[in-house]
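Worked example 2:
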Amino acid sequence: MEELITLKEAAALRGVTRSAIHYLVKMKRIRSVEKYGRVLVYRAEVVKFKPLPAGRPAMKATGKKKSTK
């Protein structure tokens, strides 16, 4: 069985706030379970979590060439 940890422990493990971990759970980026009225996350998923690249995606080239008249 996989080890379950609290949001507080997950936050300490990643070096972020509890609300940041809660946001990842809410966005379904990290699996969670609710036991005894508490939200618990899988330790392995917290450790292997890779954040998405920050910022806006680069625009694609349109392929149109400017005329040099």
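The mean pLDDT is 90. Residues 4-48 form one domain.
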